[in-house]
Amino acid sequence: MSDATFLTDFHHVAGIGATANSGVERQAATEADKATRDWFAAFARERNWEVRVDGIGNMFALIELVPGAPYILLGSHLDSQPLGGRFDGAYGVLAGLHAAERVAKRLHSTGTTPVFNLAVVNWFNEEGGRFAPSIMGSSVFAGLMDQEKMLAVKDLAGTTVAEALEAIGYLGTDQRPDLAGYAEIHIEQGRILEREGITLGAVDYSWHTQKLDIEVLGEQSHTGATAMADRHDALVAASKVVLLVHDVTKKFAEEALVSSVGQLTLEPNSPIVVARRVHLVADLRSASPEIVAEARASLLADIAQIAKDHDIRINVNDFDVRGIQYYPEAGLELTEKVAANLGLSVRRIRTMAGHDSVAMNRIVPTVMMFIPSVDGVSHCEREFTTDTDIVAGVKALESVAWEMVNGALAPIDSTEQELSKAGAA
Ligand SMILES: [Zn+2]
Does pLDDT of 42 surpass 90? Predict the structure, then answer.
């Protein structure tokens, strides 16, 4: 597989669900998502790789090299945000498919028998734009979320995950592969690599994140006929909450905490009705769990005051709390070694965004790599990474996959662990 073939495939997939301004709109389990899934399955079947779909819509392309051995899994997600970018997620899946093919060919041509099998994944609903929470498919796979509960999650139109997957033909029943490791490559979505002119990021840890589910309950009434003093306007109170969630970051050092309300739904959303209910989700992230806790406490107190001032009820619930996760040191060293061999510049970098690899890192040795994002923007149509960088990233992933199928980062055998424990005692 040449770099040109990779670029052709990448730019082809970027055309699925393409928007007018070079972005993509491929929310989870929509027709556009189905089209990329069909493309993924066709890529695998053309190469005689086995395709499996599990009970939460995750897709696996399996290359069996050593009968019965567990798999090293490469991949990311093909779904996008509404009016999202064409690199976020899709790049990692395409890089995974091409890296896997290169590794399989190299094993074949050198007559090498690896330690593990190799597979590529397209995780279901990493983005969480249509169905919350995000990182759904990989979290179910890792046992961090309950499959039945996630299948019952509804979008704003009332369609469940199960119904949406069924409708596009991707609610599977196949057995999940046994894994020995996971590797993912993704765009940085920030500007550290670009600013420093570095090609590869070895991701060392993920930020502490937490969401707040906020429900503001007012009273529905006529926007013309109700006296101002008699209104219990849920939207006015919710607007103050939105500003609080933004302003709370100013209590801490610059960029120590990031925070936004990204979703707001309004009922009944009629131009001549005072809003009775507003539902919003705030997203708080920091490298410090203490800062998130302090910001949360300050928000809860200020929100209670708004409720009092407006004579309105506001319910706040914690949701989707994720602690700091460290990636294994051996994986960081592997990325650094691979970069050195390929002549690519590399640095260690944290991720502020969540990724499927954060879930996978809980269950298997995991390597996460970044390539630069032009202007550091993501979750928008103008997201961009150069062809030079995406091609370099595929080479890095190929080398990491090569080392991993040949036993680098292999999980320590539990019996060996028992023996060494016994020896130490
Ligand atoms: Zn992503």
Answer: yes
Contact 134, 89 (CB under 8 A): no
Note the pTM of the prediction, 2 decimals.
0.89
Task: Give 425's pLDDT tier (boundaries 50, 70, 90).
Answer: very low
Please say whether the dihedral angle defined by the alpha carbons of residues 215, 220, 224 and 225, taken in this order, is positive or negative.
negative
Distance (angstroms) between ligand 1 centre and the Cα of 345 equals: 23
Evaluate the CA torsion angle 76, 79, 81, 84 in order and state its sign. positive
CA of 186 to the centre of ligand 1 (A): 7
Which residue type sits at 287? A
- Name the helix (H) or strand (E) containing 348: strand 346-351
Neighbours of ion ligand 1 (CB under 5 A): 88-89
CA of 219 to the centre of ligand 1 (A): 39
Task: Give the residue from 41, 145, 46, 124 showing the smallest Cα distance to 78.
Answer: 124
Q: Ligand 1 centroid vs 117 CA: distance in angstroms?
A: 25
State the DSSP code for 408: T
C-alpha distances (whole Å) from 67 to each of 45, 63, 109, 111, 174 are: 19, 10, 19, 16, 18
Q: What is the per-residue pLDDT for 412?
A: 59
Q: How far apart are CA 71 and CA 78, in angstroms?
A: 21
Best CA proximity match to 67, nearest among 23, 24, 113: 113
